Amino acid sequence: MTPALRVGLTGGIASGKSLVAQQFAAIGVAVIDADQVAREVVAPGTPLLAQLFERFGPEVLRRYGASLRCDDGSLDRTVLRRLIFEDPKQRRALEALTHPAVRERTETLALQATGPYQLHVIPLLVETHSQARFGRILVVDCPESVQIERLRARDGTDPALARSMLAAQATRAARLAAADDVLINDADPQALVPQIAALDQKYRALAGMAPAILTTLAGQQR
pTM for the whole thing? Predict the structure, then answer.
């Protein structure tokens, strides 16, 4: 069986990757989201979660209730996010622990997926130099000012923290340089619909080509 075309979807934080992935899923495309996989591999009771608690301390254990003395054994992602974005060393430590498990689980899901092509949502695709794993790279793009405003509206993130979060990722220019295809998401989400429809047709056509040809084309266009 010919392997399905794998499209790597990436973009900066709050660029709209999840929205784009949802729209692809709505038209029947197999979507594998690295963030969702990352949640699976650190679910309560997993060995990896125990390693994270050991490495980063009890402050990353999610707590609830008025007294904040109760916990449900899960990871407090808000605390962990703040910790790693403020300290590059901590971020590298987290990646060293989680990336191998995420990649292993992702590969399992990819082999189980059906359809002519599949979309892999990888927020840190450029940062981890993972371009070679995919036949196409699709970047969701918008100005940094839009990202900061979305973070404020979505999570209540203050501008200083938002800027530090952006600075911890690849630059907008670096992502665009890695792109085979670009989706502009700086306005009404409905503007994505025709862009996604066109890309769906393109990827279905490319999926009918031999993997060797796909690799050659990708190399020529980057």
Answer: 0.80
Residue with tokens 């279905």: 204
Rg (C-alpha) for the chain, rounded Å, is 18
Angle at the Cα of 22 (from 167 to 18), degrees rounded to 5? Answer: 10
Q: How far apart are CA 159 and CA 60, in angstroms?
A: 23
Torsion angle in degrees (nearest 10) through CA of 177, 171, 121, 49: 140
Over the stretch 148-164, which tens digit does the pLDDT of each residue have? 999 999 989 999 989 98
Long-range CB pairs of 195-200 (<8 Å, 24+ gap) are 196/20, 196/23, 196/24, 196/27, 197/27, 199/138, 200/24, 200/27, 200/29
Closest of 193, 207, 202 to residue 27, by C-alpha? 193
3-state DSSP assignment of residue 89: helix
Domain borders along the chain are 5-29+115-221
Task: Provide CATH code, domain 5-29+115-221.
Answer: 3.40.50.300
Q: Is 73 exposed, middle or buried (0-12, 13-18, 19+ CB in 10 A)?
A: exposed
- Integer Cα distance of 214 and 206 in angstroms: 7
Residue type, 80: L
